[in-house]
């Protein structure tokens, strides 16, 4: 009788532990989804600001058609991206296009002094900061989740219940280059 009670207790403890591991994997997977949605919110805000910025610059730099086309194309790519990898690639394209747009704006002193342009530039800068923070939070969350999916004993539960590792939000190789500073 005592052995049967011990076996039942051990089985209950195993079931409780498996449930705990399963629930912790679900919680981390949901955190990853939430962190990604926070990036998505900031990327959406960024794409919403861009048409206003482009229209403001267009008024001053009518002959810079290719710059505007590149920004519009990059914005569309970002809006249609579905996976983390597609989003990262489109985000990098948009960042490059915006750098070009701001370089064009440097050639127009009246534009740089325009309050609407300054406000849009400030909002975009704030959004870029939020995107950077959201990326970091997302990648930290993915790290915790992926660790849980790979480490014993939770990796056994992860494989039994088909928990898949998540992708990190990575920057392009061109963004890793150290910028050249000239005085």
Task: Map the helices and strands.
Blueprint: H1 2-58, H2 65-80, H3 84-105, H4 109-113, H5 115-150, H6 154-160, H7 173-176
Report on this model:
The protein is mainly α and 183 residues long. Helix content is 80%, strand content 0%. Helix 2 runs antiparallel to helix 3 (84-105). It is rod-shaped. It starts with a helix and ends in a 7-residue tail after the last helix.
Radius of gyration: 24 Å
Low-confidence stretches: none
Largest sheet, if any? none
Quaternary organisation of the protein chains: single chain
Distance N to C terminus: 85 Å
Q: Give the SSE string.
A: HHHHHHH
Backbone structural class? mainly alpha
The percentage helix is over 70%
Number of domains: 1
Summed up:
By secondary structure, the chain is mainly α. It contains 7 helices and no strands.
Descriptive key words:
de novo design (two linked rop proteins); rod-shaped; mainly alpha; 80% helix; 183 residues
